[in-house]
Design brief:
The protein has 86 residues and is of the alpha+beta class. The protein has one domain. Helices cover 29% and strands 24% of the residues. The protein has a 4-stranded antiparallel sheet. The longest helix is centred in the N-terminal third of the chain and has 20 residues.
Length: 86
Amino acid sequence: MKKIVLPLIIFFFLFPGFLMAADFDFYGIRFGMTKDAVEKVFKLVMTKSGGFEAENPGHYIKRLYLVFDHKSRLFYVEAYYPWEDM
């Protein structure tokens, strides 16, 4: 009985954390959004590496790099901010 109860307790404590991590939102884009939906928020330009870069992302972002999977869903976001005191 102890072998079953302990994993269930751990699961119920950690499961809400996984649900909250799935709701990641970065200036209106979320993981799993299609490329067309992301283009409504940012104008995308294809890079040489196969990913996309947002043209003039704003919000003090110097560079915003996005990668989509084989089903054209967002799975990687990389944002660069200027290194200076604001």
